[in-house]
Amino acid sequence: MSNFVVSARKYRPVRFDEVVGQQHVSQTLKNALQNDQLAHAFLFCGPRGVGKTTCARILAKVLNCENVTSDFEACNECGSCKSFNESASFNITELDAASNNSVEHIRALIEQVRFQPQQGQYKIFIIDEVHMLSQQAFNAFLKTLEEPPPYAIFILATTEKHKIIPTILSRCQIFDFRRIQINDIVNHLQGICEKEGIEASKDALHIIAQKADGALRDALSIFDRITSSLVVQDGKKVITYEHVIENLNVLDYDFYFRIVDAMLLEDVSKVLLIFDDILRKGFEADIFINGLADHIRNILVAKDVATVQLLQTSEGLRERYLQQAQAAPGTFMLTALNIANDCDVNYKMARNKRLHVEMAIIKMTYINRALQVAQNPPAPVASPEKKTPELNERSQGVPQRIVETPSPAPPAQPVVESAPVPQANEKENQAPVPKVPKPSVSERPVAQTNTAKPIPNLGLKTDHDLPSLTSLEDLEEALEEESSKEEVPAEALRLEDVQPHWEQYIEMVQSPSLKSTLKRAELLLNEAQIKISVGSKISRELIQQESGLMPYLRNQLKRNDLSLLIEIDQSKAPLEKKEKPKTLLTPKEKYEHMKAQNPLIEDLRKRFDLKPDHD
């Protein structure tokens, strides 16, 4: 079996210049070495696989190098560098805090600090995963970390900076490591492919870099996995895009480009077939919807020249994004991205997950049509309106009623017709009627409406039966036209006529409290005004909120001038439930009251020889 070394170890950087994507850290450390302003404690924090431990080892190597180069790199030729490369240096101690996190391990480390370096100038202690130390171990380490010997330097590394206590953070010089960019990982992988004699397409390396999520160590592990599955062709190993997406179970970009093209054409059958093909290949629906959202985001980024640089893809793939961005409207992309996001959020709660995703992509398919309808709503279809040809100039402004069959023109207000209205030709033959002055706004009856709960069908006119007045002048003309008509004197109302309809409406009421209030109300009649007396403000408000009462009575009695007056009569207050004032009683008064209510209590007390508390 050959001595195979993984790429993460084989190509581990040994110089600051070889560290990938952390130039801000390496350059700062070089400047500190150049200016001789080196701290005694460092804290390297950042995500996994970005070079924290690597930089710590390079710094430790440079500190003890006997022949530091002009650019402050280790020479790799002196005795200290050779012993370090062979992992035989006694001046560099590495401690894994994940497995050595107790107070005893920290005490042992402090004991080692007391001894001066055998070779070189510094004794370096590298503590990896320092956030795993216990609270007691941190406290034991504080004093040594704050005031170490001049030859001791501590380099702490962690992936979870928030777990380290503030007293440790305040004693260290903190360096934050970044996630490595995709292009930096791709360039590093290309350099390794050249050294290994492997041909790799740039699209394939981009997939590996994206799968690594900013960690170079993960990218090298994936790279080793791909190269181990390659078949040698003509004496060379070739990494293709198809081979990478097959081994990493990554959905091909081509599916997303095809499905967006089908959505733009509103070809819903093709969209569903592409989605079915994706499921048949073994991909989950949530992976597809997440990938589609990322694809739509890339299209939006590609629509603006200033944001094209945010596309972390290969050149060939970038050209496809630019082409599709020109064909896709921005409103379509924004709406589709919103639908995809909602689908992803509600995916876990959906029972039929396939149907859930299918509904989302069908909505995306018809986005353009929905936007057109929203921007240009269809004009409402007007019903045929019957007009009387024999109209004079003044009556042309009066709106007519829209009906199916010829009928007389209705009055301006939504009331029930009580008498037939003469046609226009009959009106011309009648004698002129003097105009009646228009009533003021305060004198006009206000119709009560109720939008909160439905009113039973009482034969009233609906909104479709009302005339449509286009202007204030039309309304004034309509009022004048109605006032000029001959009024038929209404018959005098009697209480005997109102009482049956009042009781009939009470039986139709659903609310028990309102029904009880209407039954207790005393009904009086003063010409066209119904006057009732109630015992409280609450009862009055209950009746006022009942908006179907007066329209019902007006319709049944054929009186549009009918009104209602509600008064509060304090003499009727005892009819409603009142709470008696509470009085405080002494124990003796309570007992006397109970004895008065039930004389047997006294016999019970004497029989058991009980004594009241008040005695």
Plain-language structure description:
- The structure is a single chain.
- The chain has 615 residues and is of the alpha/beta class.
- 46% of the residues lie in helices and 8% in strands.
- The protein has 26 helices and 10 strands.
- The protein has helices spanning 7-10, 23-35, 52-63, 79-85, 103-113, 135-146, 166-169, 182-196, 202-212, 216-228, 241-247, 253-264, 268-280, 285-302, 315-327, 330-345, 353-365, 367-375, 424-429, 472-483, 495-508, 512-520, 537-545, 549-557, 587-597, 600-607; strands at 41-45, 92-96, 123-128, 152-158, 173-176, 198-200, 237-239, 522-526, 529-534, 563-568.
- Helix 12 (253-264) crosses helix 17 (353-365) and helix 16 runs antiparallel to helix 17.
- What is the CATH class name of the largest domain? Alpha Beta
- Net shape: flat
Share in β-strands? 5-15%
CATH superfamily of the largest domain: P-loop containing nucleotide triphosphate hydrolases
Mean pLDDT: 79
State the total count of DSSP E strands: 10
Number of helices: 26
Helical content (DSSP H or I, runs of 4+): 40-55%
Radius of gyration: 46 Å
CATH architecture label of the largest domain: 3-Layer(aba) Sandwich
Distance between the termini: 105 Å
Structural domain tally? 6
Class computed from helices, strands and strand pairing? alpha/beta
Strand order of the largest sheet: 2-3-4-1-5
Which sheet architecture does the biggest sheet show? 5 strands, parallel
Give me the CATH fold name of the largest domain: Rossmann fold
Poorly predicted parts: 386-469, 574-579
